[in-house]
TrEMBL record, chain A:
It comes from the Bacteria. Residues 6-124 form the Gfo/Idh/MocA-like oxidoreductase N-terminal domain. Residues 132-255 form the GFO/IDH/MocA-like oxidoreductase domain. This is Gfo/Idh/MocA family oxidoreductase. One of its GO terms (molecular function) is oxidoreductase activity. Keywords: Oxidoreductase.
TrEMBL record, chain B:
It comes from the Bacteria. The lineage of its organism: Bacteria, Pseudomonadati, Bacteroidota, Cytophagia, Cytophagales. Gene3D superfamilies: NADP-dependent oxidoreductase domain. InterPro entries: NAD(P)_OxRdtase_dom_sf. This is Uncharacterized protein.
Amino acid sequence: MTDRKVKIAIIGLGKMGISHLAILNAHPALEVVGVCDTSGIVMEALKQHSAFECFADYKKMVDKVRPEAVLIATPTKLHFEMARFALERGLHVFMEKPFTLNMSQGEELVRLAEARNLVTQVGYHNRFIGVFNEVKRLVDLGALGDVYHFVAESYGPVVTRKKEDTWRSNPSEGGGCLLDYTSHVVDLLQFVLGRVDKVDGSTLKKIYSSSVEDAVYSTLHLDSGISGFLSVNWSDETYRKMSTQLTIIGMSGKLVADAQEMKVYFKTAPAIAGYEKGWNVKYITDLTPGVDFYLRGEEYSAQIDYFARCIQNRNAHGISTFRSALETDRVLNLLRTYPQ
Amino acid sequence: MERILFGDNQFFAVNHLSDEKSRAQAVRFKDDSAIIKVLDTAIDCDINTFMCTTHDRIANICDHIRRNPNQYANFQIYPCMPYAHKYANAVTELGIMGTLKEYMPSSNLLGTLAKGGLAVFKKDFISIMEILVDTEMKMFKGVRTDVIFIQNVITDLILGLGMYDFFRAFSDYVKKKYNAEAGFITMNLPMLHQALEKVGVENPIICASINKVGFRMTGGVELYERTLREKQMRVIAMQVFAAGAIPPKEALEYVCNLPHISSILFGASSRSHIEQNRDLINQYWKKDEAVLV
């Protein structure tokens, strides 16, 4: 690994973009060489109160500041065109989730990136949460025995009453609970338990929104033969913020985990250090490595740090690449096209 | 600042370890009277400062305080703004402009409407910040608030973006308008202290996670200890129990022996917990060593 700083530019300064920008800017191995957005208000704030070089046109920015990498955090419908532009110029790309709006676009981006051996990453930050990594480790070790069922859930209070439409409520622009919330849960599920083969009994339910689903319920069948339930609802105001939970049941034990804590039950004493027969509880404080800068959660910094290190080491086979995000898009597509 | 500050996470279903415990708390503190009862217990234990987020429900607590001035004569609140999830959920749904439209005051005061609309129109961000501060401060009218805090998600966002002049502007504004000192909550204490130094916020009040195991102490325990030793600041230690990972005795002994700690912030729901923590703090933090400011 080298110590040189990676020059990076960012496109899109919405909620995720601004937060990414702060993390990029605070990272010792990254140098933010340009920021780009079409929204007047955010760019104006940066122009007046920060030292960033600001652009309204991402192509002009890339040509002028010559970054090695870009972070794309624009609305989903713009992902494809922007990522293609960046990859064609040989730039490494970090993209906010979800990946793209249709499979053929996603496939083209994967081909482009792999042909050039470029580093790609999609912002599925659950893959960088300490607790979920421990869940994956236990599953991979076979600690639960033969897994026969899972429940993958996510709930939060995004749309809790009827309201005027925004891009979030437009399915062709990447809005809706399927792309916003469900993408995270499906990605995490495939990260931990493996590839989803088919979906059954899927419901995309409108609750308060008129044009997009607010909840997604389905049965998922994995390649491995395991099946389980998916339950996602972004109109549940009993949650203060997005909360994702995995329950996994096997012949030798059962596990319930969210981003904060994991409870795991073993029928007999497992051959894994730190665990015993019966219930075990592990907390975020035991399982979370420190970061250089903290904003909203260690995982947001950890994923950017990982991206920077992949670029420095030219590792194009990371843990949340365009290829793995395309797998997530594929499942979202199965859910979307399931006959209602 | 008092040596012990009472926190509010337990009232608003914030539990850094467990979503399940969060829900149990949400059930227990469904009614404002349950919150008031615990606050009264804290006061009874000689803890007279309540440090809380500008959650909608705090408005009801403030009403209660105003209705009972004698009972709360020595009591004060340190507001921490904004209640970030309110804005974050709104931004997810409405975008940044939509959220500004939704939350910039428009219905109550004609004056604020004109000032708010104009500030957005002119893209005068210092004025927008001031109006948002005023909006959050409305509920505290008539309640003593000696220190006004920016929540860590905003402090650390501004810090990461390098827009340090907002720290100075906030500090100047709360002094001028509310005769209060500015406080800054952060998960990045060493970096924040440097930034505040750069814009001339001297001897700042910083509230940060400080605990033996280094939980949410960005840069690590050693860097924190060095910064505390070498720099001038007034620190409020929070998350001293690392969300429950460290037993109370061990946790408080560690924090009480660090330099430049002015106060310890903790939340609790029962009299026995409040008393236990208070007694431990008094035991480890002998009076002559206390940094009273």
